[in-house]
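Metal ABC transporter permease structure dump, as promised
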Amino acid sequence: MLAYEFMRTAFMAAFLVSLVCGPVGWFLVLRGQSFASHALAHVGFAGAAAALLVGMPALAGFGGGAVLGGVAMGLAGQRALGRDVVIGLVLSLALGVGALCLHFLTRSAGAATSLLFGDILGISAGTLWGLGGLSLLCLSGLAVLARPLLFASLQPDVAEARGVRLRLLDVLFLSLVALATAECAQITGVLLVFTLMIAPAAATLRLGFGPMTGMASAALLALAEAWAGLALSWQTGWPAVFWIAALGCAAFAASCLLSRLLAGRSVAVLTTP
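structure tokens r here:
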């Protein structure tokens, strides 16, 4: 399998993306903003389709569109984020704009499939370097934001009283989420960003790990799912994104079962005379 250049590139791309998806997804789930990655993926889809239409790389358009969406969501605040109708309309409009741009492309069918469902086996060397740069940027930004972000996530009122600017923090974090979503979509596509961004993080949070252990575990679990998905795709001929999605759901279900077993054992120990 690794004798082929495109497979080695795919494994390296999965490694770079998983390093970012794990910790960023952990904060998304902790803050109750899991839907943000899905929303930004739809907005980024419109940007990617527009970029292809004018001859630019899809990753650049995806990242630019998603960052603009992230800044807008951060400025809107939590009150606007809770309006399901508004969010649904914006997502529908973004998909519509993306569909319009793809309509004018001569290679619209292949481009639409790659954007919506990913094309990890078709990642080029140039795109790989772009993913590496985005990973470095996201991890550096998250390292700077981690302490105030954790404080604001757990105790927002106290954090604001201590001088933490929550609105600015939201804008910066959602901008990071937008870049991470742009990376993740190169593997999973727009429609399945949840599989690599949210599922590993949700599974580790169910187990009650601390912040550092939780983020590291989420990154390792995302990497294991991505690499196992590629290997299973090679063996079966089925799409890698299907296996990644299936493994993500299985990991989350296993974490739910394990957390219940551990909770039941703790209760049994406490009630034993």
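The radius of gyration is 19 Å.
lmk if u need the other ones
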